[in-house]
Amino acid sequence: MHLPLPLSILGTLALLFLPPSIAQAITPRITPQTKFQYRTNGTWLENLALGPAPSGATTTPTLLVTRMDVPELWSIDVSTGRGEVVASFPNATACMGITPLGQDGVYAVVVGRLRITDIGHPVPGSWGIYEVDLSGGVAGEDEDGDGDEGAVSVRKMADVPEAGWLNGMALFPSGGTGIQARGGEKAGVVLIADSVNGVIWQLDTQTGTYRVALNDTASMAASPTDPLGLGVNGVRVWRGFVYYSTDSVQAVFRVPVRWDDSSQTVRAAGVVETVALGVVVDDFAVAEDGGLYLMAVADNQVVRVTAAGERSVLAGTRESAQVAGCTSGVISRDGRRLFVTTNGGHITPPKGGEEPAKLVEIDL
C-alpha cells in the first residue's frame, strides 16, 4: 500500500511526464558495461561519487562507492576493474550517502546500522556523518588482497541521534552561506535525506551542528503501513533547486531553495513541484542541462527524464540483470557516461535470480 499523492503538490507542473506504462514499453537501446562486480550474492552498493581528479582532468579514472551490507567505502578504477577498500567505520554495519566537499579528494559519508532482509531495516539513533580525506593518495586492499588502508584520513563530523535513517546526501553550494571553512575559504553544508522521519537535515561540515532544513510532509513522509514505503530517499542540488525522491508516493520532486543568513538554514523559496510520478526511485543523477537519470530500483531500470519532461527507459528491464537493483548514479566529468551502482536485484530479482552487486557504465 502506498500513500496517495496529495493534490496540493500536483498543481501546475514545471515538468511533464509520460505514464509509466509507456516508459516501460520502450525497448532500451543502451547496453551497460560492467566495470566491477563482487563475487558473492548479498553484496549491496548503495551510493557513489566521482573520485579525486588530477588537475585539469576531464576523464573519470576512479569512483568511490559505499556498501550497505558492510560499513566500507571502496575505490574502483573503471579502466582496470580493480576495487579496494579505502575506509571502514566502527560501530556501524552500513554506509549510505556520499558527496564530495569543497576540497578535491575530501568527502562526506553517511554511516549507521541496519539489517538487510527484504530491504534495509535501520536502527534509529545509530546514524552519523564522517569526513574521508583522500587528498594524500589511496593505497589499500582489493577484494582478494590484504594490504592496508594507506594515506586516508577519517574523522567523524557529527552523530545525529534524532535521525531515523540517514540516506542520500548532497552538498549545498557555498555561495552566500557565509560558512567559513578551515583556511578561510567558504564551505557549504550537506543536505541529508532521512527516510524514516521524512525530512531533509542540514549539517555544517565545519562545526558539526545540524538541524532540519526541509520538511514537507506531503512529499517526504514515509508510509505508516508499508515497510518498503520509505520517505525521502535520494537528494541532489542543482541550480537553486533541491531534487528528492520519495518511495512512499512513488515520485520525484523538486523545490527552489535559498540560504537564510539570519537562521543559518537552507529554506524553501517556493512550492514543491512534481518531476515524475509512478516510479519507485532510490537515488538519481542530474545532468548539466537539468535532465534526470532515475534509478528505478524495483523495476531494474534506469529511466531518463529530459529537461522538457520526456520520459523513457535508458537501460534495463524488470527481468534483465543489466542494471538489476540499480541504486544510484553519477555522470562523468565530461558528461558522456553515466555510472550506476546496484544491489544485484535484491528487491526484485531478475530472471535467473539475484546476482552480486556491481558498478556499470552507460554511454550517454
From TrEMBL:
Position of the signal peptide: 1-25
InterPro entries xref list: 6-blade_b-propeller_TolB-like (IPR011042), Hetero-Diels-Alderase-like (IPR052998)
Keywords tagged on the record: Signal
SUPFAM superfamilies: Calcium-dependent phosphotriesterase
Stated name of the protein: SMP-30/Gluconolactonase/LRE-like region domain-containing protein
UniProt keyword Phosphoprotein present: no
Keyword ATP-binding: no
